[in-house]
Structures are given as C-alpha cells and as structure tokens.
User: Fold this.
Amino acid sequence: MKLGNSDYLPHIAYDSVIFGFSGEKLKILIMKYHNTGLFALPGGFVKIDESLNEAVRRGLQERTGLSNIYLEQFYTFGNVERHIPEVMATILRANNFDTEGEYEWLLDRFFSVAYYALINYNDVIPKPDALSDSCDWYAIDELPTLMLDHDTIVEKALQTLRDNIDRKLVGMNLLPTRFTMNELQKVYEAILGEKLRRTSFQRKILSLNILERHEKQFSGKAHKAPYLYSFTKK
Amino acid sequence: MKLGNSDYLPHIAYDSVIFGFSGEKLKILIMKYHNTGLFALPGGFVKIDESLNEAVRRGLQERTGLSNIYLEQFYTFGNVERHIPEVMATILRANNFDTEGEYEWLLDRFFSVAYYALINYNDVIPKPDALSDSCDWYAIDELPTLMLDHDTIVEKALQTLRDNIDRKLVGMNLLPTRFTMNELQKVYEAILGEKLRRTSFQRKILSLNILERHEKQFSGKAHKAPYLYSFTKK
DNA sequence: TTATCATTGTCTCAGTTTGTAACAATAAGA
DNA sequence: TCTTATTGTTACAAACTGAGACAATGATAA
Assistant:
C-alpha cells in the first residue's frame, strides 16, 4: 500500500471495529504498529475518486481477505482533541518514513468515520498492513489500551451493536452457516454481556421466523443432540 | 460569514435536518440560494481548530438563534456521486463569488456529516446565510426537490428519528415546556406517520414516569379541559 | 336552569406476550 | 439397564396491549 499524498483525500480517515465470535467471547481485530507499542483499530484512507463505503470495503478485504462483509457505519469522530500529530509521527519514524514531504499529510488533523463489521471468525486470516507488525483478535474484555480515541470508538461500536441487536439480524454474520440454538444464544449473551433464559430465548428467536431447522448435530456427549439451524435468507 | 480557504478544513462539511412541529405537522428548515432555484439543507464547514460538534452548534445558532439545541449525528455521506462541482459553481456565481482563487476549495469533493436537531418551532426566527435568500419551514410531506443528495439525507434523518423515538425522548424538544397529552400524541403521530390510539398512548407515556402533571388548560371549547404536563428533567 | 355536545381521564376485559418452571425425550457412558 | 447432561416442548401465572365503555366536565344552546 502506498500512502503518497496525491492518491488520498486529506483530513478524512475511517476506522473499523471488526467483531468476531470465538470461545464464547466477542472479539475484535487490533493492529500493533512496529516498534512503538501502539495498538489501534484497523483503518485507512479514501482515494480521491473512491466512495467512502468502497474505501472501507477495500480496506477490510485487505485486512481479512473477505469481501461481502456485513458493515454498519455508526459515528464520525471529529474532535480537535483527537489530533495528536506526535502519535502519527512516531509511527512513521518507526517505519523509516519521512515525516516531511510525501507523507507529511498524515500528520494533519483527521476526521474518522467509524464502522463496525460482523464476520465469521473462522473465515479470517488477519493480515497486518504496511505500518504494523501484527493484526490479532482480542476479546473485548481483554483489550490493550488503544491509541488516540480508539477506546471510545470501540465502546460506541459495542453500544450501537447492543442497541441494534433486536432490529438487525446479528447472529447471521458471526456464526457459520449452520449452528445450534445454544451457539446463537451464546452470541447474544456475549454481545449483551448478560445471561439469557434458554426457553425465552428459543421462543423469541423461533417466533421471528428467520430460522430453518436442519438435521441434528451429534456431539458425542452423553445427552440429547440439538438441531442445527440456518438463517433463511430472503 | 467568510468562506476563505484558510479558515476551514477542506473536503468536510456538515448538513443539518432541523425538525420543528407546528400545525400538527412535522417541518424542517430549508434554505434557498439566491437566483438559482436551488433548495438545500442548512449546512456549513468546520474551522481548522474547531471540533465537529462545535461547528454544527455554531452553525445552528447562526441559523436559528438558539443555543443548547438537541442534536444527534446520524450518518456521514461520502459517495463520489455527490460531488457535482457545477452545483456549487452555480451558487457561487449567483452570489458574485469568484470560482477561482479564494473560494475554489468549495468546488472540491466534500464529505457531509449529517445531524438532525429537534427544536421548539416558536422559539425560532430562521435566518438565511450569506449565499441564500431564504430559510423557511417546510412540512416534510411538502418539500421542494433538494439539491445533490439532500433528499436522501432528509429521508435517513426521518428514518433515524422514527427508530429512536422509543429510546430517546423526542417530544421534549419539539414542544413548549407545558403541553397537553393530545399535543404530545400529535407529535408522535407526525413523526411515525400513523394514527395512534388515544388510551394506549396515554397509558404508555404515563407508565414511563417522565411526565409531571400540572393545572388544567381551559381552551374555551365546550368540553372537558385537559391537564398540562411537562417533562421531569433529571 | 337544563339539555346538548365534544373531549378527556379512567376502567374493564379479552387477547397476546413474557418470565419461570416442569417434564419427557434423548445420546452416550458406566 | 441405569445414570447424567442437555434439549424440545408444554404449562401456567404475571405483565402488557388493543379496543371499547363510561362517567366527568367545560362551554353553548334551549
């Protein structure tokens, strides 16, 4: 990836909170920049002749290998206080990029349009970008401290996800195609941060008429085998 | 208002959908540009050293005279297709502003961060800005065609308002301090675009424990006088 | 004064949804 | 065959909602 100042719109960036579900926990992708100890959300910039949503999809594909990701834009952060040029300067210098000339625009003040994405954990092989040495999953209750206002961004993403959980189908994107009712319940519990009642949950989800029942899944455990379900796409 | 290129961040604008309630209808403020026949949402730009939210409040105060307005950011529009430099060139020329030099930056591509505001209709005396000759209320079902993607912005604002109506207190900002239950119901009906049942609405609102009951309001009409209510602020 | 009218506050009652528990039906191992 | 953990389903009370009934009440007309 090149970051020359001729290709991108100045002052505008995006950051993405990429949610996955594994080990009964909700996790997000976090990048670590070379030789700085700085952690950040995956983000990027918008090309001169590119739409905002296209730019975000392009960036997410580069980071996860996935196209056709479920995406929601949730807020644009534009406080003066989030402009701390020393942070970007540190990152650039750690990567031997000159902070004058071609890359100087990266030190300017930026607005960040924030998106959250819901993806199937097992489909992804996270890839760091040119400035970072890792891109890894972190459980949302075990996050490192993030640079700038990225902690706030994550918090707002999670809040929006919770607010949306009953209006937009959330489980669809965090689970494999076929799953048990219990797995779906675990996803809801991880997002909401609270236990749910089994029978109420089952009744509520089934009453939405969005699930198709398939064969049973035999786990080898000594108890009744649960049915597998999939979402009916329409 | 000056619009010289040294004061504002390039490529970033905001637009606001300012809701008011009058004559049993939901209305929004629309500006008309001098000698162009172009209608648009009130908007503006962000100064170099100013936070986004500050900029929006500053602009709204200039347009309405109100400070302390209820504001929600709801989406950022960044499609390539919304960049039609001829439109802004038309507006500038109609105001005898040179499209080269100091104001040339206004012809660039812009992202627009969109907000909606809820205000008390009677508190406002709309004021046009430097480029427009009017700033007036239009009922949402009688809007003129708006320039660029401003129709889309209004539609999304209304959709967001409807989605939020049960989660955020909406009536509070669209009515005077004291109001009758019927007036509040009319606000809900205008926003949702459907009739509501009187008794159900009353029961639901009262069960929220957010209203304080005051003296009756005698209208001079030949029927029982309704109580006045106000929101309990906490 | 009395009758009429439109609107309001409250109540009722049935139908629906939700919280909670109970119970029978498994799969696999002992 | 018995035990154990988990699942699908049913049952029942509590809470909520839709729809209507009804009395109370300001003002006007008779």
